[in-house]
Amino acid sequence: MSLPALTLKKQHVFCRFALRTTFRYSGKLSKSLATLSSLNTEFFSAQKQQQERLSPFLNIKEALENVYDVIIVGGGITGLALANALALIDIGNFSRIREWRGDSANEYYSNRVSSITPGSARFLKDIGVWQKLDHTRVKPYQKMVVWDGVSDAQIFFDSENISQALSSLPLFQRLIKKDSIDSNSIAWIIENSNIQHGLLSNLDHFRDKNSGKISIFDNKKVERITCGNDNDFDETKTHEFFDLSEWPIVELDDGQKLKTRLLIGADGINSPVRSFANIETLGWDYNSHAVVATLNIDSTTDNHINNTAWQRFLPTGPIAMLPLHPHVSSMVWSTTPQLAAKIRQIPADQFVELVNGAFRLGIADLNYLYKIIEKSPGSSDYNIGDEVKWRESVNMNSKKSSSPVPPRVVGVQENSRASFPLRMRNAECYVKNRVVLIGDAAHVIHPLAGQGLNQGIADVECLAKVIERGVINGQDIGDLHSIQEYASNRYIKNLMMIGTVDKLHKLFSNDSAPIVWMRSLGLRMIDGLEPVKAEIMKFAMGIER
């Protein structure tokens, strides 16, 4: 069943489900709040008995101004994805959204990218977003190399071998069918801005197919969220239909009050929606910051194809190089806050050589370079480039010729270096009466596995199906019993992913000899067992959600 259409032809039910959705765009207009469409839910049925069983509270009059079925707070990727999945069909004026898109032909790449798994890509295709992406800036990768920085034990993943092992799975068969997305890829590296533009473009597409109007509230923000009562609205317009006393009220900074049947928090780690619902979080801050940068790589070598994701686990944290373009890659380097600050400060040429060293040098050599940087970052007394090249030449003879290394970095895009703290969080619960949390508002994960956004997209897919079923069955979509299925489905799966990634982080951050020996043995054993690697990738690629 296609989510955007929200139709069930076999049951002779056509559902026109126009939601008014509020979201905050996370781009340049980070404080802007948008309200999509006006509330107007109508049902048509070819069978009288089906029409009669639809609950009366879904028949809301247009006169009920500022009362909505759904409000989504948070206009990042997960918030926009949910707006798309809920099939917003009463859409008209997208003039301001078009201003947000920016120049897709920009020669520079954003330093904020995501690894989109086949499971997430399939869902984006199902809701029409995948087709709206700028595919000149979508980079698939077919290989992945992960290795231990202390012992050099490695595990190698190749999409061809994985495809053979996964070919019998139903979802994988959907991926390889005609006109579907390319299944011969482990994942796709895409700039977050490209995904956001695709989501907005897909919403724009509804404007050409349907009538209605979208209102954009610029320079507005959520002032507070409260649980209201009927006195906040005209009683003559409410009591005839249903009790609004427990519906959340979102108050904007201009005084407007928006009341909703279901409030969805897609508003990040410091979620106001989660605070309103009094939902606590469990977790901790890692003593790590992630340094991100956009790298220019050497594309002059023979048989150069930038189709491999590289990740090396160092005692201070993993460093990863992800392909963006034949001669551009994205870097994510997790390390201590102190070292992260120094890495951002050193001159570009020294930074480039330090990154090359981080993928090639031994731990003792890297520790020596760290000390140089921490004592005198950018000092002319030390040349990081010369140190790296000399130490690399010394180590060359002892390194196995068969050991793969990433392409050499030759430059860093100007102003692309940045850093952010790493945290692990999971909300105690994802739903309360008339409140749902998705994405980072519900859970935050270490980036070493590239699963954060994919978890959020899986949340969206699950919640959209739950809401759709609730509407078709005539349920109150904000009632706890209607939305509990979402929490039951997603909580355990997210907890498993968060726990697995957290344990991997702790395992590879330990450089004691017994731990290094055990994890190296494990890597080498797994690398020789294709069925085991296929099971790992089935989990990581979102093939079974």
Automatic annotation (TrEMBL):
Pathway: Cofactor biosynthesis; ubiquinone biosynthesis. Its cofactor is FAD. It is found in: Mitochondrion inner membrane. Pfam families: FAD_binding_3 (PF01494). It catalyses: a 2-methoxy-6-(all-trans-polyprenyl)phenol + 2 reduced [2Fe-2S]-[ferredoxin] + O2 + 2 H(+) = a 2-methoxy-6-(all-trans-polyprenyl)benzene-1,4-diol + 2 oxidized [2Fe-2S]-[ferredoxin] + H2O; a 4-hydroxy-3-(all-trans-polyprenyl)benzoate + 2 reduced [2Fe-2S]-[ferredoxin] + O2 + 2 H(+) = a 3,4-dihydroxy-5-(all-trans-polyprenyl)benzoate + 2 oxidized [2Fe-2S]-[ferredoxin] + H2O. Residues 413-475 form the FAD-binding domain. One of its GO terms (molecular function) is oxidoreductase activity, acting on paired donors, with incorporation or reduction of molecular oxygen, reduced flavin or flavoprotein as one donor, and incorporation of one atom of oxygen. InterPro entries: FAD-bd, FAD/NAD-bd_sf, Ubi_Hdrlase_CS, UbiH/COQ6, UbiH/COQ6_monooxygenase, UbQ_mOase_COQ6. It is an enzyme of class 1 (oxidoreductase). Component of a multi-subunit COQ enzyme complex, composed of at least COQ3, COQ4, COQ5, COQ6, COQ7 and COQ9. This is Ubiquinone biosynthesis monooxygenase COQ6, mitochondrial.
